[in-house]
Amino acid sequence: MTKQHPAWSPYDNNGGTCVAIAGADYCVIAADTRMSTGYSILTRDYSKICKLADKCVMASSGFQADVKALQKLLAARHLIYQHQHNKQMSCPGMAQLLSNTLYYKRFFPYYSFNVLGGLDNEGKGCVYTYDAVGSYERVGYSSQGSGSTLIMPFLDNQLKSPSPLLLPAQDAVTPLSEAEAVDLGDKLEIVVLNKGGIHREYMELRKD
Amino acid sequence: MESIQAKQGLVGPNDPIQRTQLPYVTGTSVVALKYKDGILMAADMGGSYGSTIRYKSVERIKPIGKHSLLGASGEISDFQELLRNLDELILYDNMWDDGNSLGPKELHSYLTRVMYNRRNKFDPLWNSLVLGGVKNGQKYLGMVSMIGVNFEDSHVATGFGNHLARPILRDEWHENLSYEDGVKLLEKCMRVLLYRDRSAVNKLQIAKITEEGTTISQPYALKTFWGFTAFQNPTAGAEGSW
User: 3-state SS of chain B: helix, strand, coil percent to 5?
Assistant: First the structure.
């Protein structure tokens, strides 16, 4: 008896790329706003960035339904934390929670590639990078998603020596959108987190 | 992973897990757009059984509650099941009798959760849903796929519509379309689908929802043109063919 193969896959790749870079007392998180499936664009105006706590922002690419479910779960857990501890969750704390949440579904994973950005307990910028099943690491900068293979070498090159890069997220993503990533484009959403709060801006990218 | 049998019946202990389905009676594209006063949605009335067009009077757009329209493509029986769930939801909402009623955003969220949780159980509702509505002056138009992928936009389309209608809408849609222009634009999309989608039938309904309420048109047919010279003498270049 042959094994019955399913006629559908529970996963889809809705594309996109995320980047996060940590500074001395700030953090920049950026992601494109295109949502695609196969070679079709579903919408040009979809935000992949989610604010989880006052000092903690998550950007995720991959399968959008799983990303949404993950964001909802973390937001709910954060609300409970606030009720129980009467304060916001710290970024390192949220980082651990995200890792545990991802591993919980180790045998039917969230197809979600995340970067977490924010300020740690001392006010310094921090970036955490994840794989789909929760393995994570604190780093100075990272990118995830379809364009990450093109962005990471660029960031490695620019950020190996400490230099005040004005807004590297903008520069990091534009040259790559001119390159081969079919599912990257439309708009770039940039979020800057510092002690003054959260600031968001947009940049146009190619539309094709 | 688990090897528990989900369904009883003629299933033996060594049989494969039977949860994943194949669609049987399916509807094709739904196209919808936001216009000045609300949402316009169009779908034909065909229900295909594989490559046969078996049913020609299937209503694939239904009003839900006071503020929303739901259009579905894919498995018709799953759509009917969803309508039963939504009936119950709207009933409980009405029973609160508190002056509030579920709006399109809430329904879209509910449908997304239902579709996503069914896909988590490997037993999807085989539909692509379009949810549009107006509440308190706010227009809303969103889409959910059978695996839970959801988004909202100014114009959406399912199935073939995604490939054939969306580019037309991207080119010609603009903010504050009048009702007549909106209908013309939808008919243009439906006409292209009628020419190019083999599961389309020439009997469609256009539904409109505004703050005042819902109207679903009587079924009607689009005018098509087949008098191209290339069709006049098709065997001219190849004698003996048909």
Answer: 30, 30, 40
pLDDT at B2: 45
In a domain, B200, yes or no: yes
How far is the alpha carbon of B241 from chain A, nearest alpha carbon, in Å?
36
Q: Into how many domains does chain B fold?
A: 1
Q: Give the pLDDT confidence score for residue A164 in this predicted structure.
A: 52
What's the confidence (pLDDT) of residue A168? 57
The pTM assigned to this predicted structure is 0.89
Preferred mutation among A37, A44, A66 to probe B, highest tally of B CBs within 10 A: A66
Three-class SS state of A133:
coil
Of B14, B120, B147, the CB nearest to A12: B147
Count of A–B CB contacts within 8 Å? 64
Q: What is the mean pLDDT of each run of 10 residues along chain A (208 residues)?
A: 72 92 91 92 94 95 96 97 97 96 96 95 94 94 91 86 57 59 81 91 85
Cβ proximity of B46 and B55 under 8 Å: yes
The parent domain of residue B114 ranges over: 35-73+103-220
Question: pLDDT value at position B8?
Answer: 45
CATH number at residue B119: 3.60.20.10
Q: Which of A3, A6, A35 sits opposite B151 (nearest CB)?
A: A35
Instruction: Enter the ipTM.
Output: 0.88
Chain B: closest CA distance from residue A169 (Å): 25
Residue B203 within any structural domain of the chain? yes
Apex A183 CA angle, A117 and B43, nearest 5: 115
d(CA B222, CA B239): 34
Q: Which residues of chain B have pLDDT under 50?
A: 1-9
Provide the shortest C-alpha distance from residue A10 to chain B (in Å).
Answer: 6
Strand (E) or helix (H) holding A79: helix A64-85
Nearest Cβ partner for B20 among A3, A8, A42: A8
pLDDT at A186: 85
Q: Is residue B192 part of a domain?
A: yes
* Whether A160 contacts A122, CB under 8 Å: no
CA distances from A143 to A19, A20, A115, A116, A133 (A): 4, 6, 7, 10, 16
The answer as to whether B64 is a domain residue is yes
Residues belonging to chain B with any Cβ–Cβ distance to chain A shorter than 8 Å: 1, 14-18, 20-22, 112, 116, 119-120, 122, 124, 143, 145-153, 162-163, 166
Cβ-based contacts of B145 with chain A (< 8 Å): 12
Q: Is B20 a catalytic site residue?
A: yes
